[in-house]
Structure formats: C-alpha cells, structure tokens
C-alpha cells in the first residue's frame, strides 16, 4: 500500500491523544454531550486499521439496529473526511466496512444476542479490537464478559487486544463505574478519563450557551450532560420504573397515546408516542428538538403520525395549538389544568412501568436525572424539581384521557383528581 499521511490534529483534541497511544486492555471514556469522544474513537478505528494490518474491529451497541445511524455513519464520515473513501468498501447487509487492499473489516453487531458475536472470525488478520459505543446502554455485565473472553488467541509479535468504551454516565449505579472507574473495584489494565464540550473546538456558541444555561436550570442533568460526571441516583421520581428496551411496537396490543410539550430556544419541543398495556407503557417513537418553529413542527408531527389520533398538548400554549390546528393538525387538543394537576399527574404516572425504545432515548435521559426537591435540611420532599422534564411532561399529557377524564368524558375537578390518585394507592 502507498504511504498515507494523516494529520489528526485539526479534528481530534489533544485530550484524546492517549486513546491513540495506549496499549491498555480497556479504555473507558465517559463524557458530556458534544465532547467529541465518539468522533475521536472513530478516527482511532481507522488509524489502527491503516497502521496495523492484523487489526479487525468489532463495533458494538446494545441493539444492532441502532448502529447504522450512529457508528456506521460516523465512521463513513471520518473516512470521507480523511480522503480515504475509495480505499474502503461499505455494505449494509451485512453491516460492514472493509479495507479493500487488506481485507480487514469493521463488523457492526448488537448485544441482542451476544453468542452470535462470539462466533465471528476474521477472514484476514485477527479480531482483536472492540469499540463499545453508548456503553451505558449495556444491560449485562456477564454478556459483556462473554464477548471480551471470545476475543482471544495468539497475535503477531507486539500485537494486543483492546476494548474501548464510550458513553454518557447517566447513573452512578451502572456497573461500568465499578468495573472501570472505582479504584477499589476496577479491572486491571484500565485507562479511564473524562471529556466535556471544552474538549471539542468544533462546537458553535449556541450549543455552549445552552450547556451553560442547563447548569443553572437543572444541575442534576448538567452533571452528566455538561460536566461528564456520574449522574445522581438519589431521589429519582421514577426509580426502578423504567428501562431501555428494543421491541416491535406492531406486536404490542394496547391503547395508543400521544403527547406534546412545547419549547423553543433553550427548551426542546418533545413529542412522544406510546402504547398502554395494563400497567406497562411502551414508548416507541417521537422527537426532541430545540428551536422548532410552527411550520417545521407541524411537518414533523404529521410525519410522525400525529393526524391518526388525538395528541394531548400543553394547554399553556393555546396560540401554538391553534396555529398547528390551522395547519391541518386538528387532532391536537390541550390538556386540562387545575390545582396541583402537575404533581398529581406525576404521582399517577408512578403507577406504570416504562419500556423505552432506543428511538426515544431522550426520555430515558430525563428519567435518569428527574428527582424530587430537597428541603433546606437536605431531605427529599414530595415536590419534583423544575427542569428538563419535557419528554416526561409530554408523556404525562398523553396519559390525560386515561388518568384524569371522568365518566362523563370531562376533565376531572380537583377533588376527583385527588380521589383518583388515592384510589390507586399513591
């Protein structure tokens, strides 16, 4: 192969240089939003394939169907940016990237079935590198270890096996903390470090301003999203009531619901679609976007199926609702409001268990940081923290016809709502 000269300095911050130099068995990078950790690791994948002809990569996420729009596209963009597109072959079925001259491959797999991963064998070279993207989604420590142990065998002189994990640390309870960050319990052969938006010079000022405002509005979420620190698990409103789960919504029989919470400059507009089946709620689709004007919002809602049923929306925005209705979205209706209705809605929501599809990971992130307020003595109260709960609010609005509509089909008054909450033991 002809000599290829690559200058990474303009695309990869120096905080990631240790990623390229380390031979440790495990490199765990926890980071804030916009820290560039996945982009840097994508460069590392290509760098190692070009430099070390024995290296093949496994790129793993918890769910295989999330790879194409994330890791696969990121690596394709990096290869294109480096001017190396013609050196690689890209296939979607199976999802792989192959270096034409050597036959080295990047295999994209999901932990949906870890035993299938263990059966992969590289045709040229050795399967000796793994990138675990969004590692926080990994459900099983045991399945992770099974895959780690499957990468084995004698490598060429100087060769080594390596696993790189990149993730946002939403909860300090996740096993990743014990395995790779706590000094008393972490594995041998671990390099760990944390990066933030400050390690990415390619961010625009609006993104940075939003991060700064988040620190003021919601310190709990900012710990993770801005500072890259472990999320606080104490006082979660929906503790043990939610999980990330891959499912086919077409296979679930139940009541379809939709909800909408409005935002604009700093607060996102959140739209969610879910299915209620007994005490289980399967949240499977939606969007979460800042700066959304009414015209593009109407288009996104229409594309998301909002015209196929009632969408319950924040009644504090009657003008926005009217404008959306004038654009053909007549199924959007305002929720009822009344004394303590928000707190009552939250209490009622705790009667359900939430199955959150990867398409709606923004809801998972909110639930991981949505807590009760503390009083001046540091004790938890029954009131929830104000902050980034827009997807949660949208889901609460979606539940409106189930939780706060009386037998006559009208919105319950205060006493009726109070009784409804008490009747389910909350």
From TrEMBL:
Species lineage: Bacteria, Bacillati, Bacillota, Bacilli, Lactobacillales
Taxonomic source organism: Fructobacillus evanidus
UniProt name for this protein: Phage terminase large subunit (XtmB)
Domain Phage terminase large subunit C-terminal as annotated: residue spans: 261-400
InterPro entries given in the database record: P-loop_NTPase, Phage_terminase_lsu, Terminase_L_C, Terminase_L_N, Viral_DNA_packaging_terminase
Start and end residues of each Phage terminase large subunit N-terminal domain: 27-229
Secretion signal, residue range per the UniProt entry: none
């Amino acid at each position: 192969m002809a000599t290829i000269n690559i200058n990474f300095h303009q695309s990869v911050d120096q905080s990631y240089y240790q990623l390229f130099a380390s031979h440790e068995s495990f490199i765990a990078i926890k980071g804030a939003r916009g820290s560039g950790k996945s982009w840097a690791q994508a460069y590392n994948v290509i760098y190692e394939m070009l430099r070390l002809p024995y290296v093949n990569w496994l790129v793993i996420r918890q769910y295989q169907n999330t790879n194409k729009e994330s890791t696969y596209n990121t690596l394709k963009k990096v290869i294109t940016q480096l001017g190396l597109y013609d050196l690689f072959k890209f296939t979607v079925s199976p999802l792989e990237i192959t270096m034409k001259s050597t036959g080295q491959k990047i295999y994209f797999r999901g932990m949906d079935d870890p035993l299938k991963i263990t059966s992969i064998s590289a045709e040229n070279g050795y399967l000796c590198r793994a990138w675990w993207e969004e590692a926080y989604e990994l459900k099983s420590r045991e399945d992770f270890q099974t895959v780690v142990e499957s990468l084995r065998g004698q490598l060429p002189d100087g060769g080594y096996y390596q696993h790189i994990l990149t993730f946002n640390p939403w909860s300090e309870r996740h096993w990743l903390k014990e395995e790779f960050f706590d000094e008393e319990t972490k594995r041998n052969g671990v390099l760990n470090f944390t990066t933030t938006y400050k390690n990415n010079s390619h961010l625009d000022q609006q993104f940075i301003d939003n991060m700064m405002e988040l620190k003021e509005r919601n310190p709990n979420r900012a710990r993770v999203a801005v500072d890259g620190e472990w999320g606080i698990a104490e006082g979660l409103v929906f503790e043990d009531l939610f999980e990330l789960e891959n499912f086919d919504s077409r296979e679930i029989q139940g009541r379809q619901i939709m909800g909408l919470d409005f935002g604009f400059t700093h607060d996102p507009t959140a739209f969610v679609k879910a299915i209620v089946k007994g005490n289980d709620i399967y949240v499977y689709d939606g969007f979460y976007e800042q700066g959304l004007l009414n015209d593009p919002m109407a288009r996104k809602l229409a594309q998301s199926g909002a015209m196929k049923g009632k969408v319950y929306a924040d009644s504090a925005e009657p003008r926005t609702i009217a404008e959306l209705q004038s654009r053909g979205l007549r199924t959007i209706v305002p929720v009822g409001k009344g004394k303590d209705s928000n707190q009552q809605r939250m209490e009622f929501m705790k009667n359900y268990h939430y199955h959150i599809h990867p398409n709606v990971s923004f809801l998972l992130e909110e639930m991981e940081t949505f807590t009760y307020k503390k009083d001046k003595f540091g004790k938890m109260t029954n009131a929830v923290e104000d902050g980034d709960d827009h997807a949660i609010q949208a889901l609460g609005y979606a539940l409106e016809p189930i939780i706060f509509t009386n037998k006559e089909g009208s919105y319950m008054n205060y006493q009726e709502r109070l009784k409804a909450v008490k009747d389910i033991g909350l």
